[in-house]
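Discussion board: Methods & Data

I've been asked by a reviewer to show the raw model output for two of the constructs in my manuscript, not just the figures. I'm not sure how much to include, so I'm pasting the format here to get opinions. Each protein appears as its amino acid sequence followed by a line of C-alpha cells. Is this the kind of thing reviewers expect to see in a supplement, or should I convert it first? Here is construct A:
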Amino acid sequence: MQLPAALAPLARRPVAVLGYGVSGQAATALLKQCGCGVEAYDEKPAPGVRGEFSAVEAKRHDLVVYSPGFPQNHPWLKIARGAGCECLGEMDFASLFWQGRLIAVTGTNGKTTLTEFLATALRRQGLSAVPAGNIGHPLSRLDDLGATEGRVAVCEVSSFQAEGLRHLSPHALLWTNFDEDHLDRYANLRDYFEAKWNLVTRLAQPKLIVGESVAQAAAQFGRTLPAFAKIVRRAGLMQLVPAGSVFASQPQAENYLIARAFWEMEGLPMGVLEETARSFSTRRNRLARVVEWEGVTYWNDSKGTNFHATLAALETFEQPVIWIGGGKSKGGDIEGFAGRAAGRVREAFLIGETGGILAAGLHQRGVAATVCESLREAVEKAHAAGRHSAPASVLFSPGFSSFDMFHDYAERGLAFEQAVLGLKAAPAGVIPEASPA
C-alpha cells in the first residue's frame, strides 16, 4: 500500500494513533502496510499501547490519527495541535487512500440499515460496492477491500466522525433523520446538528437526500438546505414500500424511501432495489424476534440506544408492550422521554443507571414500573407479567447506551437473548443461573 502524497511528509517520523479500539487498530494496520512507524496511545493502556500522551510524546510525531471517541476538545488532541501535529480522524485519514466513489450515510437512527441495504442493492445492480465506516468495518480496513479504484464505498458516518472532517468529500449524502442524542458529548442539540451538517459542506457533488425531520432541524437552527437537496416525506409514499419487506412499517419505511430517492437520482432500474428490499434482513439487534413462549413474544432491539430509536420501536406494536429499558445516560430529557413512551407501555422493567428516573416518570403517568438489578432479573419479571396477560410482547429497547453494564449493544443484545432462551430451557419452577454476560 502506498502512502498518499499529502501524508508522506508527515510520516517520516512515527505516526501517533490515539485510541486503540476497532478504528485505531485498523488505522495502525494501514499505516504499517505503508511502511510507517506507529506508536499507539489509549486511556486504557495495554501491552504495546501507551497510557499517557503529553507534550513530550507529542513532540515525537508530526501526524496524529485519532478514533471517533476523541471529541475535538479532548486534552490529547489539544496537546497534539499545540505541538504542531496534523490531527486527522480515522475516517478522514482513510479517505485519502480511497480512489472510488463514496456515499455517506448519516442520521440519528437508521444509518446501519440504510448503509448495508444500499451496498447490497448496488452489488445486485452489478457495481463493486462495500459497506464501511461506523458499522463496525472502519474505512481504514482497506486491506479487506482490495483495490479501491472504480469501487463504491457506502460509508456510515456518525456525528463523532463528521465533526472533524477536513479531507473526506462524499459524492452523495443520505441523512435519514435528526432527533435528540449524544447530549453527553455535545453542549446542545445545535452542536449535535452542526457536527452532521459538516458533511453537507463537504459534498463533492450536488447529491443530498434528507428525511423530513432533518429539514425541520435545519430550519430550526438557521441552516438553509442547498437548492439541489431532495427532502423525503413519508406522507403519501408508503405505497412505494415493497409489501412483506422489513421496510413495510416504520421506522424502516423511511430508510427505503431515502434509498429509493437516491436510486432515482442515479437513474438505476427500480426493480433491482425492490427485489433487494424483499430479500433484505436487518441486523440481529434491530427489532429482531427472538422467540415466542407461553404466549409471550420477545423482541431484541438492543441497538435502540437513544430516545428516537426506542420510541420508533414502541410504535411498531399495535398494543402496549412490556418494556425492558434503561442504561447509561447520554444526556437529554429522560423524564420527558418516559412521558412519550408511557402511552405505548403496559408495564416496564428497568435497568442501569437511568432505571430509577425512568420508573419515576412512568409512575407519574400511571404505568407500573420496576427497577431491576440485572437484565436477567428484568427478563424473569417481564415473562411472569406476560404470562398473566398473554398474549403479550416483551420489547427490549433500552433507549440508552450499554456502557454502564456491557461492552456494547451487541453484547447487551446477546445477554438478553441468552436470558430469554435460558429461562425457556429451564425446568418448570427453576430459575437458571445467570450467564457471565
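Construct B, same format:
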Amino acid sequence: MNKFNAQKCFAYGIRFDSKSEMERYLYLRDRQNKGEISGLECQKKFTIVEPQNYGRKRIRERYYIADFAYYEKGRMIVEDVKGYKKGVAYQLFTLKKALMLQKYGIWVREIE
C-alpha cells in the first residue's frame, strides 16, 4: 500500500497505482473497443517545462505524466484519477494542470 492507502493493481499486464485507476482504464478500454474513443495511452508523458541553462547550471526539463490520454471526436483528452485532494502532492498536480492548459491548451480532467 502507498501512503494514501491505495493498493497497486494489475489488468492486462499493466500496473495501476490504485483500484480506481484500474477501473477507469477498464472503462476507457471498453469505450475504445466500442469505437467511442481511440489512441488510449496509459502514463503519457508531457514536457511542461523545457530544459534551460542558468549561467553554468543546466536545468532539466519537467514532466507531467497523465494517467490516461486518448482521442474523442478528434480532440485529445487527458485524465488523472484523484482520490486524495489534500496536501503537497495535490497542490503540485494543480500547478501541473495549469501548465498543461497554458502549454498545450489541454484541460486535465480529474476523475474521482
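Answer (T.O., handling editor elsewhere):
This is acceptable in a supplement if you add a one-line summary per construct. For B, something like: Helices lie at 19-33, 87-104.
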